[in-house]
Amino acid sequence: MRFLCLASASLTLCMTATLSASTKPETMNRAEIPAEYKWDFTPIYPSWEAWESGMKELDSKIEAFPALKGTLNQGPKVLLEAYRRFDEIGMLQYRVYGYVMLQRDVDMRDNAMGARFQRVQALFAKYGTLSAWFTPELLTVPEATVREWIASEPELEKYRFPILENFRLQKHVLDEKGERLLSLASQFNGTPRDIFQDLSTSDIKFPKVTFTDGKEVTLTPGVYQQSLQRRSQADRALAFENYLKTYSATANTYAAIYNGVLQRDWFLAQARNHATTLNAALEGNAIPAAVVENLIASTKAGVEPLQRYLKLRKRLLKLETYHLYDNFVSIFEGEKTYPYADASRIVLDSVAPLGEDYVAKYKKFLSGGKVDVYENTGKRSGAYCMGVYGVGPYLLLNYNETLDAVFTFAHEAGHGMHTVLSYEAQPFVTSDYTIFVAEVASTTNERFLLKKLLEQTNDPKERFLLLQHAVDSIVGTYYTQVLFAAYELEAHRRVEKGEPITAEVLSEIYLGLLKEFYGDSVTIDELYKYTWTRIPHFYNSPYYVYQYATCFASSAQIFKTLTTGSDEERKAATVRYLDLLRAGGNDHPMEQLRKAGVDLTKPDAIRAVIEQMSELVTQLEQEAAKIGE
């Protein structure tokens, strides 16, 4: 959310003081941005010549891997050799992929980089085909025999979890011919995603609108989001109506694409002997379907704080009717800026409760050429953290000195520290943690940041802005993602029952969920039922978004144990939490969270989020009263 200075005296908050002089470059020319604010790629490869050598080495190892075919029944030494080769190939994959992807993302205009990226993708696809024999062949060896091999060969111990996972999932593995067939078809699995991408970006014609101040704009996705922050409700309504009509005009096409996603997921679920698409999506991480079902049911039962917040927004914004497009305009405005150097200090100070060792490693990570800080022409938008095994995490920002930017920084750096600790503690084979726990580290760091910032001010308007940021995070990361998850689950279940999927059916599902979640707190405009047409996750990665909500719920419960109770209880909670970050992928994520004190099969974690939301809204109401609103 942007924070600008309002003209209205009663709602204006002009926090003009900065913590120190801004270091943000005036230029958008990447070559002119100081090196200290840019990625250093040389730890991955010193040059493109070295990268080419890496590609050749990777190709050679991929070509050599099938030589092991037919030998896995010969004992622990052969199995160990196979897994060592997996490691060698995997570590090379990280490097050749990361070196290209990271450089592509700082200048998306570079076609040569795009061509290199396609070469990497083609090599990965080749590996998938040439290694398709491995799991079916391993599963011809009795599990009891493999367990004996692991016990007899100490070097196999670190591979115990991934090896035995193959046997746990054995009923979902096809024979060699079946696995090869599915691997050959894998490129077609992305066809619905690619069609959606082209329809929603390349071929879409975004409308032009003229706002009440006479400004004419083209409503691209970025401009649309900015338009929803305009002070005029009429402008927000105009932007919403024209933008959603752009998608609703081709709703039948989007429905056909999404039907392709649903049919693909159901085909793959049945091909691998899963009862439902939800089971197929969750089985890999041993997550019970009840986790998602209970998440949705418990959240629907806990929408009161959400609705209370929206009613508070309506009152403070002095609106006669409140619409979903009013959710993004700020209530109070601030111009306080956070130069990057100060943001670094704040995020470091905020995590002091996690211990000196954590802070020292955090500081080293932030100062080591692993953070690409500022926007430049051609750079990918948004923010992310990507790990390169053997090198460490790389963090992409487009830092603009706003409060939002500071929280984004803390969020992505939380991922970075999760990666640092996992890489340090785990061998390669178990170094990659699952998405199911990934957002715990990032949102926990955001919670520490909020706590620190609130401790530093008594100004009711500044506190209101901080609390509102926290509430908006819960709305976006928790409630909205659960609504999305409920939509995906219902749509997939329609296909599993053999029911038709049309634009009307999908819109009916989505509209029903909007009414369940928002009740009478908003006026739900008819066009909002077409929101499903424009959500990339639905087409790119089904059954993914629920994990944002489960991670958010987990971090809420963990943060409570980190910051409340006796000194001994907090210390014990800190040890459990850091152990979670060091665990990488050495166990099923539900078990990892259980060890950290979270059991998502029980309602406690969900209640922790809903209780936190209720407490924050109450605090917002109190701060608003102090302001006189």
- Tally the helices: 25
Helical coverage, percent range? 55-70%
Coarse structural class: mainly alpha
Order of helices and strands: HHHHHHHHEEHHHHHHHHEEEHHHHHHHHH
Proportion of β residues?
under 5%
Query: How many strands, what sense, and barrel or not for the largest sheet?
Result: 3 strands, mixed
The side-by-side strand order for the widest beta sheet comes to 3-5-4
Low-confidence stretches: 1-19
Rounded to the nearest angstrom, the radius of gyration is 25 Å
Strands, total number: 5
Based on the structure, what is the oligomeric state of the protein chains? single chain
- Overall morphology: globular
Between the first and last Cα atoms, what is the distance in angstroms? 21 Å
Integer average pLDDT: 92
Q: Any overview of this molecule?
A:
The protein is built from 25 helices and 5 strands. It has 629 residues and is an all-alpha fold. The protein has a 3-stranded mixed sheet. It has a two-stranded antiparallel sheet with strand order 1-2. The longest helix has 37 residues. It starts with 47 loop residues before the first helix and ends with a helix.
